[in-house]
Structure formats: C-alpha cells, structure tokens
Fold these 2 entries.
Entry 1:
Amino acid sequence: MYISKSIIDGLKILGFDKESIKSVSREKSLEEIFLSTLFLNYVLVLVIFILTTMTGGASINGRALNMPVIYGILMMYPFTYNLLIYLTYGLFGLMAEMLNKKSHIKPLLSVGFHTAITYSVVFYIIAIIATSNLMASLFLSILFIIWFIFTMFLSISVIYKFSLPQTLIIVFLPLLLISIIILILLFIYPNLIRSICGYLFI
C-alpha cells in the first residue's frame, strides 16, 4: 500500500538515510503522496472525533477544551496541513533556487511530503500526550523542531549538493523570516495567543 510505503520512506528520511532522500527526491509525481497525507490526516481526525465523543470531550492541563471549536479546526486541519507543508518546503526550495538557478523546488517538496506523512503521526502522539502532561508535550515539540531543522539541513545538502555555508543560509534564512513575521504579528496583536486560548478552552 502506498501509504505504508510513504510512512516507511518518511521514517528512513527522519533516520537521516541519504539514499532514501535521493530516491524520494526523484519521484516525478506529487499527487499520490499529497493525497496519502491528506487521507491519513482525515483518518486521524476521525479517530480523535470518535474518542472524544466516547469520552465526552477532552482537556489540557485540567482545562476543558471547547469541542465545537476543536471539531471545526479538525475539519479544516488535513487540507490546511498539506498547504502549510507545501508553503514551508516551497519556501526552502525557493531559497535554494535563488542561490542556484539550476536547483528546483520539486525534489524538496517530494521529500517534504514524505516526511510530512510521518510528522502527522508524531503530531497526533504529541496531542494525545498534551491532554495528560502539557510539559512533556512541550518538550517533545521542542525536540521535534530541532529534528525538523536537522532533517531539512540534511535534505537540502543531499538534494542540491550545496556547501556547508550555502546550506546553512538556505536553512536559517526562511526560519528567520518566519520568526520575524511571528514577532510582527505579536507586536500588532499582543493578546493574540490569549485570544486564541479563549476560543479553544471553555
């Protein structure tokens, strides 16, 4: 089954397997992996819906979640997730293309979606842990960010064969841009996080 193969490929990439990165980056079509990631996320959303319906809701750190809002977010999550993966890896690929016109975005996108299908399961596990231990989930989230950066670094290095300084530029420039955008949003809307939490919790 294509989904199981994609998850295995994603795990190999997250295990820093350079041959898997090269193999996946040469895939000609992104449609199958895009749809596989979408399908898996909808399955995970369905599982969450069934579990929370059976248990009468969910809570984080003792605070009950506003389930109608959560269900609304979950309905939009699978497609939004795929779109964010496309934009994120597309941004890193664009930086590589700007640095060297012979580089193309598509190979990195292919690797991105193969890791994304594995990330879906990771996010699901972190979300489950958050309902019982918020600090543990935050710690795992930090580890995930570090793992993501290192995997991105290795993927760019293998796909585009850039030097160490070039690869560092491509990895950290988008991260810097994203950080600046987040800081601007928090400067304009200082109560943004508090407002979001107000909608998510009862």
Entry 2:
Amino acid sequence: MADTPYQSAAAIRAAVTDLEDEGLFPDALIQSLVAEFEEVAEEYRGVAFTTRSVTAEYHVCIGGPVRLYHPKLRSVSSVAVTYSPAGSATTLVSSQYTVDNENGIVVYGFPSGATTAVSYVHGFDSPPNVIIRACRQYVRACAKSDVSGVSRDVVAQSSDGFYTRYSTPDRSMGRPTGYVEVDRLLNSAPQYRTPLVA
C-alpha cells in the first residue's frame, strides 16, 4: 500500500491563493514541504495522519506482547520471531497472535531476548481537517519565507529599544514548527505519543 500525501500540490494551490504562481512555487517545492510537514506532525503527535506501511524490528526485553512504534494499527501482514542471535526467523500464522489495533500492540507470548520483525499498516484513513489546515499553513509560511527571506512569525516587538522577538521551534514548549498558527492547530489535534513510544 502506497503512502498518500496529506495534500497534493493542486489541492494546496486551490486552497492557498498566495501560492498560485507556479514559477515562484513549483510543484516540487510544495510537495517537499508537505512531506516535511508530515514528518513534523507525526513525530509531534505520535501518529500517522494517513495510512502508512512499515516493517519494523523489535527487541523483546521482557516477555509478552509487543507495543509497535505506531498506534492506530490497521492490519498486520507478517510477524517473524528470532529466538536467539544465531537462530533463524520463525514466521507466525495469524491465529497465533491477536492485535490491539487502537493501541498498536501485538499480543503473543514473545520470549525475553527474542527479536521480532512486524510488517503492518497504520494510521488514519485520511488527515483530520485540523491537520489539513495546519499543513496548508505550514506550506504557505515556508514557501513564502523562501521567497521573502522573512523566516519566522514576530511574537514581540519594541520600536524604542529596537527589539524584535521571533517565534522559534521548541517542541517542549508546544512549538514544533515555530509558526504560531501551525503550532496552534497541531496542539489542538489528539496526542497519541506515550512514554512507551519514544
């Protein structure tokens, strides 16, 4: 299953008239900024806002179920277990394990010290409206800053003291992008990240 971008370049242009000039804002630029925003949004909120396919390896420290790196599990296509460093992988059949889709957990008695490779599809059917809007705002802000040379939102200014303060990225302070409106929208989306999914 191919990953679907949050927004196509055409959809961004239709919604953001500032980016209509294809000479200044070519499709390749818009598409790269959409992909960049997807990485930021998914890392910050801890979930894929579109469907994504992945094969990931997990080292089982404590026997039992395995929590996958991604919540909102849609399907598991393969689970293979290697019981020792020198051993060969054993592929489980689907009747041997169960899946907690919402929390992204494969339930099976994985032994301590085993290595497990899981192929699966995860994420939302499509991005929520708040994420689509945040994506458009991010693409607009970044694309226009590349042209204008003004890279950040001004959050404080004093003309007498020649003081200007710009918003900068700081995830720990709720500013994953440093763009005020984009960060407001991202912070209004659900948080899926847990201490177990680093």
